[in-house]
Amino acid sequence: MQTVIWKQLNSEQQLQVLSRPAVNSSTDIAGIVADVVSQVREQGDKALIDLAAKFDNTELSAVRISQQEIEAAEQGLSEEFKQAVAQAKANIEVFHQAQKPQPISLETQPGVRCEMHYAAIGNVGLYVPGGTAPLPSTVLMLAIPARIAGCKKVVLSSPPPIAPEILYTANLCGVDEVYAAGGAQAIAAMAYGTESVSKADKIFGPGNAFVTQAKQQVSGDHAGAAIDMPAGPSEVLVIADDKANPAFVAADLLSQAEHGPDSQVILVTTSEQQAEAVNQELARQLALLSRNNIADQALSHSTAIVVNDLAQAVQVSNLYGPEHLIVQTEQARDLLPEIENAGSVFLGEWTPESVGDYASGTNHTLPTYGYTRTYSSLGTLDFMKRFTVQELSQQGLKDLSRAVVPIANAEGLDAHRRAVTLRLGEEQ
Ligand SMILES: NC(=O)c1ccc[n+]([C@@H]2O[C@H](COP(=O)([O-])OP(=O)(O)OC[C@H]3O[C@@H](n4cnc5c(N)ncnc54)[C@H](O)[C@@H]3O)[C@@H](O)[C@H]2O)c1
Ligand SMILES: N[C@H](CO)Cc1c[nH]c[nH+]1
Ligand SMILES: [Zn+2]
């Protein structure tokens, strides 16, 4: 990991240090995805079977996983895994149940009642990544809020062959249908439907550059589906002071580096010695990891930034807008009021990012690539929509006509005015 001194960089160099790695810059991802999407729209299941052979090296006999296969998945799994999933599920349920919105009902003026109601999105499609590692935890993060929101139909797609841990967790969380499809083809199938795949109104879930591009393409088409957010390759930024334990800091950086070669990890520290100590720890701990070649590639485009003080550390973090922000400083909570752009924040030395990935209760589906400026972490509300209601009494309409009629006149919209005045007997 290269180390830079923030104040020695000009503003262009500062932005360069915080730029995301170009993902497969030699590959025309948008073009490949557009071809895959049209192949799925034209050929349905046949395309999914052909693309599974091409991209996932898997010969599929059917796209939809049968209920027997789903139930059989439990057999090979350990009690330890099942209990871990049960504990994580309970915590995620508590936190997402608490997010269920309360309806609003009030009078804005006497006789004029306004209300806000919420309804679940009908059919939702969940994408669970499986290219470099199967992620059963992502099933929990997507299916639990879908069920709490009350979605009618919840379907899930993941690259074949689907790990039994994913099938078991999907069944436990009440997923209705599971499909063996990965990448852009899975997103296209859930957006438009095929013989085996049910069309979804909205598609959720993280994935690689192909998945993220496909989500963007189908959401731009009226016949396609809405999407949650661009949730791409994992990122973490750690703010550490001179007192932080470099072994803990390095462990947190590596936990995101191991997700993929296009992951990005950044250290922002007030101490040059800390940056050096973390670099030494990275080298020591990297050798202990099974996916060390992946983590090593991610570290090659990651940086340690030395700043003047913690206020500047937060400014750098806000500029980058990380998916995960870990604060390992003496008074970590003190920085919270200044944090503007982050998907999920981890405070203090006892809060590694892995707890949010799996089991604390927060959602690990988070905006990446700087989208934290405008998007939020996934929650129950994303599986719902809201609508307003109004109801007026006769007197309420009479009083409110003093606001409606002049504005309708100013807009030259006679029919709007007449819908009020006719009721009040002021016009025929
Ligand atoms: N932001 C978040 O909330 C979040 C959460 C979990 C995981 N992630 C990220 O999700 C990503 C998962 O990526 P992954 O690759 O492991 O799994 P994935 O399931 O997203 O992608 C695998 C699929 O990509 C397609 N693919 C691969 N190479 C292709 C090519 N050359 N052309 C066309 N299609 C191709 C294949 O169809 C394959 O099935 C990681 O980057 C991880 O960091 C993000
Ligand atoms: N850190 C990932 C989100 O960027 C989520 C995850 C799943 N499993 C492990 N981690
Ligand atoms: Zn992770």
From TrEMBL:
One of its GO terms (molecular function) is NAD binding. It comes from the Bacteria. Pathway: Amino-acid biosynthesis; L-histidine biosynthesis; L-histidine from 5-phospho-alpha-D-ribose 1-diphosphate: step 9/9. This is Histidinol dehydrogenase. One of its GO terms (biological process) is L-histidine biosynthetic process. Substrate binds at S234, Q256, H259, H324, D357, E411, H416. The keyword Transmembrane helix does not apply. It is an enzyme of class 1 (oxidoreductase). It comes from Agarivorans albus MKT 106. Its cofactor is Zn(2+). It catalyses: L-histidinol + 2 NAD(+) + H2O = L-histidine + 2 NADH + 3 H(+). Belongs to the histidinol dehydrogenase family. Transmembrane segments: none annotated. Zn(2+) binds at Q256, H259, D357, H416. GO terms for cellular component: cytosol. Its EC number is 1.1.1.23. The gene is hisD. The active site is at E323, H324.
